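Onboarding guide, step 5: your first structure request.
Type a short instruction followed by the sequence, for example:

Predict the 3D structure of this protein.
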Amino acid sequence: MIWIKDNKFIAALVGGTLLAVLLLFFWGTSGSGRYDEAMTRFAVAAEEVAGFEKLRLSPKIGNKDGKTKALASYRQALDGFQAAFESYRPKDIKDVTPQEFTTDLLAANTEVRKAFEDAGATVPEPFFVGFESYRTVLANGKTTGLLEYQLSGIKELMLALAKSKPRALNNLYRPRLPEEDGQTFTPPANAVTRSFPLEITFTGPEKSARDFLTSIAASKNRFFVVRSIRVSNEKKTPPMAADAKFDSPALEKPKEDAGGFDGGFVLPGDTAPSVDGAPAAEAPASEQVDTSRILSQVLGNEQVNVFIRLDLLQFLPVKKLP
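The system replies with structure tokens like these:
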């Protein structure tokens, strides 16, 4: 006791250290017990899961029959889908000689240009129906089959656009195929189509955009998929009343002087002056202003800029189901 009184700091330090050691020992002992308990539960659960994994599944006969029926219906639906698109699947894509492809390309370009010219629309220069790189260079003979298929689809699109009477075809962009650059195209294992992307930009009245989109959806020989479309009004300001062109009514002939009084007056409820108590005849239709045409006169002359990104699909050969 005397030593503790003479060495209070050391005694307090020894006592605190001893207490900390005891607490750490107690905490470590209890933690080890929780760890052992958790390991025991994990081992039991793992053994139980391993036992389930070794068991062989044994569904009920009713479930098995239901699954067999569902698979049969699924197979029938897939076969039906493949048959439904049979008309869009090319019978055979054969390569032609580079000279034959060039001849077909020139003919298609001439026909498309004439269609736009007859519709009063312009095309950009140099325009060659998306095959501008083949204006002076022959195509590879191993790619002419695919190029012919793509050319036929582009020609159909351009003739349909010309028929819709746009003001101008601004751009037609056709990305090059891998085969054109000496590469090989390998479709994914489960692919049923191959996409040939195109980008078309044109300007015209709103009706031309509607008619062109309708023709894309109504194609019976080729299947087109619109991926994106952007439509913007060529006018950046809202329509004004001054934009309307109103019909001017015909001027009435001056009446002869009747001594300061022409005998015409309006009775309550009358909509036109009366003469001798009888309503006067309304103005001829040719002299009236057709107010129902005001809105179309204000908005009817507006032009829209249309950008369309679409795919021409080539349906691959029918896949045999497993």
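Each response can be followed by summary notes, for example: Helices lie at 2-6, 8-54, 61-84, 98-118, 144-163, 206-217, 294-299.
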